[in-house]
Amino acid sequence: MYPTLLDAMTARADSRFRVAEQAGAVLFVTVLTAIAAQISVPLPFTPVPFTFQPMVVLVGAAALGSRLGMSSQILYLALGIAGLPLFAASPILPQGAARLLGPTGGYLMAYPFAAFVAGSLAERGFDRHYVTAVLAMVCGLAVVFCGGLLWLVVAGSSHSVRAALAIGFYPFIVADLLKVVAAASVMPSLWKITGTR
User: Fold this and answer.
1) What is Dmax (Cα atoms) for the chain?
2) 5-194: what CATH class?
3) How much of the chain exceeds pLDDT 90, in percent?
4) Residues near 168 by Cβ (< 8 Å), separated by ≥ 6?
5) Contacts of residue 174, Cβ cutoff 8 Å, sequence gap at least 6
6) Whose CA is closest to 72, among 126, 124, 36?
7) Angstrom distances, CA of residue 92 to CA of 79, 99, 103
8) From the CB of residue 17, how many other CB atoms can be counted at a distance below 10 Å?
9) In the structure, what pLDDT confidence band is assigned to residue 23 with cuts at 50, 70 and 90?
10) Cα–Cα distance between 94 and 113 in angstroms, integer?
11) What is the pTM of this model?
């Protein structure tokens, strides 16, 4: 197992300060996820908006690792369920716990699992080189799409697999893969900039 970027940057800290730094990093990724949710573009042919959240989830998890990356997304969901307006703005989808019952619920509920996958691969050194960072983020993105599509089929009683793909996959996959290609450069660059590689 390799240290994550957060591990490497906090390795010299006193154990009490290290816990505080880890908690601060989890909160920081949670806040970034909430901010990314507000940058959303509603699409007329699908109830699922286009957002930058998946990229924040994946890059944040790569920096934090599996356990803390997952924790950041569980915290995001918990705060959103509690009623804070952290989920993507929508004229038709409510904030709070009811959002998880709507068409975007599967994507949201998949974030902790996607973070765990991307973070686990980062703990195996995938975040240190561009090609493997792309692979790690594609794996995490696949978890997001699987959760979202499964929810559309199961919870959306009128959605067949074909309909779920039409509203929850095809409109987003090209843009999300382009975002992954761009976002994958973040972690190798951070390792070089910090000199902790």
Assistant:
1) 55
2) mainly alpha
3) 74
4) 46, 48, 103, 107, 145, 148, 149, 152
5) none
6) 36
7) 20, 10, 11
8) 11
9) very high
10) 23
11) 0.93
Distant-in-sequence, close-in-space partners of 139: CB < 8 Å, separation ≥ 6: 117, 118, 121
Looking at the predicted structure, is the pLDDT value of residue 197 above 60? no
**What average pLDDT is seen over the chain?**
92
- Could you tell me the residue ranges of all domains in the chain? 5-194
CA R_g for the chain = 17
As a whole number of angstroms, the distance between CA 139 and CA 79 comes to 26
Question: Within 10 A of 134 (CB to CB), how many other CB atoms are there?
Answer: 18
HEC string of the chain equals CCCCHHHHHHCCCCHHHHHHHHHHHHHHHHHHHHHHHHCEECCCCCCCCEECHHHHHHHHHHHHCHHHHHHHHHHHHHHHHCCCCCCCCCCCCCCCHHHHHCCCHHHHHHHHHHHHHHHHHHCCCHHHCHHHHHHHHHHHHHHHHHHHHHHHHHCCCCCCHHHHHHHHCCCCHHHHHHHHHHHCCHHHHHHHHHCCC
Nearest to 72 by CA among 58, 93, 91, 87: 58
